[in-house]
Amino acid sequence: MYELITTKQVQDLLRVDRITVYRMLKDGRLKGVKVGNQWRFQKNEIETLMALGTQDKDSPALKYAPREVLPVHYIQVIQDVFADMNGVGSITTGPDGEPVTDISNSCEFCELILGSPLGRQACINSWKELAQTPKGDPRFYQCHAGFQYARGRIELEGVLTAIQVAGQFYNIPPSQEEIDRRVEELSEKYQIDPNKLASAAKSLRILNRERQGELGNWLKKVAKTFEIIAQERADLLGRLKNIAAMSSFEI
Length: 251
Known about the structure:
The protein is of the alpha+beta class. The protein folds into 2 domains: 52 residues, no CATH class; 173 residues. The chain is 53% helix and 15% strand. The chain has 11 helices and 7 strands. Helix 6 runs antiparallel to helix 11. It is elongated and about 90 Å long.
């Protein structure tokens, strides 16, 4: 047997006034029954109506930009802790490589590259390529600057909405010859002071295979956490839009 609720309870659930409830009854958006002189509504139908905002034909991942479903002031803090704990740099980006958050725990070498317009664009292009890697557990790749990095997928209804990136380290200590070659190449390519780049290269991060495995596991967990946050935010936005549409006056 269905639970019947009052007009006031419908107002509270939908967060609309009494006039709006009656208007929705009149135009067929709500169904109710008269019990004496009072309207009663099936609670399950109201809950279904509220949920319609998350059941549109278009996927939430296509309806909302990454920043709309990923509250930066929350995920930035989580990302900062994740990066510091694992001793790597980390950033959240959209599928197009555009940053959603600021980079956490970025190394001096990468900061110099990001400080160059050409270098920053190269990083964005690398993040975009990383987003296009096949589904599955995080795998480590080499970026344009020679560092190792990996991604965790953040999806809404199976559609890629953003990625969580972790990197800025070497898996094998580079030789001085390799460092010198890379400094010369990157400084010329991105118009960076070679002396500053060479100085920053003295404190490059190295992660062994065991630590990389741990990093990959944490990356999955953080990406999954952000995925849950994104889904809840998309659900909320969908409900608010649905309620707004139901509450609007027809001109």
